[in-house]
Amino acid sequence: MLKKRVVITGLGIVSPVGTGKEKFWTNLINGQSGIGPITKFDASEVSSKIAGEVDDFEVTDFIDKKEARRMDLFTQYAVGASLMALEDSKLDMNTMDPHKVGVVLGSGVGGIGTLEEQCNVLAEKGSRRVSPLMVPMMIINMAAGQVGISIGAKGPNLSVVSACASGTHAVGDAFKLIQRGDAEVVFTGGSEASITPLAVSGFCSMKALSKRNDDPTKASRPFDKDRDGFVIAEGSVVLVLESLEHALERKAEIYAEVLGYGLTCDAHHITAPSPDGEGAARSMEMAIKDAGLTPEQIDYINAHGTSTDLNDKYETMSMKKVFGETIKNVAVSSTKSMTGHLLGAAGALEAAVLALAITNGEIPPTINYENPDPDCDLNYVPNKAIKKDVNYALSNSLGFGGHNATILFGKYNG
């Protein structure tokens, strides 16, 4: 069976560096950090008191106030991002066959804010006071379900949960749905609202988060020798993926073409990456092969780049395994240096970065790269964006449990 070509025709973004693609991209290219002190709860008792919070999202711009109260924050973000993506794509749902429109969204922890709140209600007031909306607000699949309801999509609808690889897995799975003809259009990406006392406390107990509390904008420093952990963040990014045939028929604007998808498992450890970068390397190789390309053709890699000691070192090793000497010619950057780590939504955000880099011929920097680490010696686009014609770009996402995912986009050339 002939595989359908798949393109990106819409972007919706809710992020710590800005809501909406224009504000998001301008701030990324300018090296603007979205990290600051935690304001969503009293962080005095946790060791990491900083986060990438969303501060410009107004839920009632997208959702009726009464309806919004029936959604956890991560679902509110997802619906808002999806409606922005719908508007950006200029799709007319009234002329679409709704059975050919799908939704695939990823999240790492879903409605953890609702879960915490209702656990407190149970402890303080008893089981009779627990909300009947707790379950439909908390469960991870409700973001995809509510997006389907909001836009009237009746096609394939599913959720992906693979920790920090969730967003990339979602985009890759959506790509394959369209490629094999199971949908014409898929709204895909990820959403997370994990800046809560329980989630932050859990990551602090793991010693995974940066403690650079006195200088938040300098805290996320991927590949820098002085990195001390990632910075937790929140938000949602949704991409509209569409069969090329359908996009051309309606004369849609095309950001980029989706070309390859790779996914592997380290089978090594619940939290630590494979020490030789083997799993991540195979994921990249799989995506490049799926796209029918060679490593020498890749212009840009948006790295997982979390600003943790092991991730940055082993991801660098994995890129060297795949690219060999040609890695010197590849621009590599980690936008987590500005956005922080959106967990299950990170891969979706970084997919949007690929699409915008290809469209605009610019690559955002890795900010806070000040003290080179001998183990991390690639071209990380330090501190300032560069202008570069990007024909092919890939993004890595690596999650707890040993999940590795890679997506590969290319410039649409007809």
UniProtKB/TrEMBL annotation:
GO biological process: fatty acid biosynthetic process
SUPFAM superfamilies in UniProt: Thiolase-like
Residues at the active site: 164 (for beta-ketoacyl synthase activity)
Keyword Glycosyltransferase: no
Enzyme Commission number: 2.3.1.179
UniProt KW keywords: Acyltransferase, Fatty acid biosynthesis, Fatty acid metabolism, Lipid biosynthesis, Lipid metabolism, Transferase
Pathway membership, UniProt: Lipid metabolism; fatty acid biosynthesis
Start and end residues of each Ketosynthase family 3 (KS3) domain: 3-411
One of the record's GO molecular function terms: 3-oxoacyl-[acyl-carrier-protein] synthase activity
Gene Ontology CC entries for this record: cytosol
Catalysis: reaction(s): (9Z)-hexadecenoyl-[ACP] + malonyl-[ACP] + H(+) = 3-oxo-(11Z)-octadecenoyl-[ACP] + holo-[ACP] + CO2; a fatty acyl-[ACP] + malonyl-[ACP] + H(+) = a 3-oxoacyl-[ACP] + holo-[ACP] + CO2
PROSITE patterns: KS3_1, KS3_2
InterPro entries in alphabetical order: 3-oxoacyl-ACP_synth-2, Beta-ketoacyl_synthase, Ketoacyl_synth_AS, Ketoacyl_synth_C, Ketoacyl_synth_N, PKS_Beta-ketoAc_synthase_dom, Thiolase-like
Family statement: Belongs to the thiolase-like superfamily. Beta-ketoacyl-ACP synthases family.
Protein task: Involved in the type II fatty acid elongation cycle. Catalyzes the elongation of a wide range of acyl-ACP by the addition of two carbons from malonyl-ACP to an acyl acceptor. Can efficiently catalyze the conversion of palmitoleoyl-ACP (cis-hexadec-9-enoyl-ACP) to cis-vaccenoyl-ACP (cis-octadec-11-enoyl-ACP), an essential step in the thermal regulation of fatty acid composition.
PANTHER family: 3-OXOACYL-[ACYL-CARRIER-PROTEIN] SYNTHASE, MITOCHONDRIAL (PTHR11712:SF336), POLYKETIDE SYNTHASE-RELATED (PTHR11712)
Name recorded for this polypeptide: 3-oxoacyl-[acyl-carrier-protein] synthase 2
Species, as recorded: Desulfonispora thiosulfatigenes DSM 11270
